[in-house]
Write a structure and sequence with these properties.
about 240 residues; alpha/beta; globular; 8 strands; TIM Barrel; 8-stranded parallel beta sheet
Length: about 240
């Protein structure tokens, strides 16, 4: 069984200079690189892409609301055409930077509030898909199983990748517990690793957030647990 292990990267110069982001690139198989809308900048995108290419890690465009004040975690009522244009610009910018580093963007993953909004909000989900359809070659979309965005993408002929979260709590209906609620973020290594193993077979990619407490140790524990369960940890095809 094959499964991808991804992490959100390129969000913070502090984490880059501390070496945490670089160390995570030695563990994960895909890097969701922040496209500068809610955090980061073009230079951080460049060094992150270069490090990912050097390690054979797949590069994904982590797109989000242009809201640096709230780190892209506040839902915004953005007109569909405006959202499509914004996301398209983010993807194209990262792809230009990735290509200059010798790589390319191979998938798209929405971030934060946008990720959760397009689980149920069809107009915004369609706006995300419309951005992908305007690319020369539509990129695969990562998202929560059962989300509106993945349904619309699949119906439009866009490849979809079902994603699970090792370090986030789930509601009984399979959605993510809001970060505002106690226990929404998991930080116990054994619990996080066990959840990753439970997700095997249900998702094609598993995420560990780089800003979770002890993210590097969590990612390492997840990878060891997945491989111990017989999974081949590799980027999604």
């Amino acid at each position: 069984m094959r499964v991808d292990l991804n992490a959100d990267l390129g969000e913070s110069w502090e984490r880059w200079h501390s070496g945490e982001d670089v160390a995570l690139l030695d563990v994960v198989t895909s890097a969701n690189v922040c496209c500068g809308a809610y955090a980061g900048d073009a230079e951080l995108m460049r060094v992150t892409c270069e490090a990912a290419v050097a390690r054979g890690v797949a590069i994904g465009a982590q797109v989000g609301y242009p809201d640096r004040e709230h780190f892209g975690r506040l839902p915004l009522d953005v007109p569909a055409a405006e959202l499509t244009a914004e996301l398209l610009a983010q993807i194209r910018l990262l792809d230009e930077i990735a290509r200059a580093a010798g790589g390319s963007v191979t998938y798209v993953k929405p971030h934060g509030a946008l990720y959760n909004t397009i689980v149920h909000d069809e107009p915004q989900a369609q706006a995300v898909v419309d951005a992908l359809l305007q690319l020369a070659s539509p990129l695969p979309l990562l998202g929560l199983p059962g989300s509106a965005s993945l349904g619309i993408a699949a119906a439009s002929g866009i490849p979809v990748v079902h994603e699970g979260f090792a370090d986030r709590a789930y509601t009984p209906d399979g959605r993510l517990v809001p970060r505002s609620e106690p226990g929404a973020v998991l930080d116990d290594r054994a619990a996080v690793a066990a959840q990753a193993v439970r997700l095997l077979g249900d998702v094609a990619s598993i995420c560990v957030h780089s800003d979770s407490p002890g993210a590097l140790d969590l990612a390492r524990a997840v990878r060891v647990a997945l491989e111990g369960a017989g999974a081949e940890v590799a980027s999604a095809p």
